[in-house]
Design goal:
Layout lengths: L4 H4 L4 E4 L9 H14 L2 E4 L39 H4 L14
Parallel strand pairs: 1-2
């Protein structure tokens, strides 16, 4: 895990799952918050609430999580992303509607 601002700045995007408090300490969380707030870093939260315990009180996770699910979702890739190989397939006509599994 990154331990300095310079190490966090090597990333353009950070994806967090659940139980991140097992990986980050309070100092690393402060560096991650600084990365997002002052250096243009992006964090994506996947799989629900990322932080528990003493790290749950932070400025990164403004999402209110619930158990409610959506029946049908549409994933649409932005114009800039359509030229990126992993997302090119998502923008093709054959995959115009993609449903996420329950």
């Amino acid at each position: 895990m990154p331990n300095t601002p310079e190490q966090f700045n090597h990333y353009e995007l950070i994806i967090l799952g659940q139980a991140v408090e097992r990986l980050l300490n309070r100092q690393q969380l402060a560096l991650l918050e600084d990365y997002v707030q002052n250096h243009g870093g992006t964090v994506i939260f996947s799989r629900g609430k990322a932080f528990g315990g003493e790290l749950a009180n932070n400025d990164l996770e403004p999402v209110i999580w619930s158990n409610q699910t959506a029946e049908r979702l549409r994933l649409q890739v932005g114009r800039e992303g359509q030229s990126t190989p992993p997302f090119r397939i998502l923008s093709s006509k054959e995959t115009a509607w993609i449903t996420c599994p329950k």
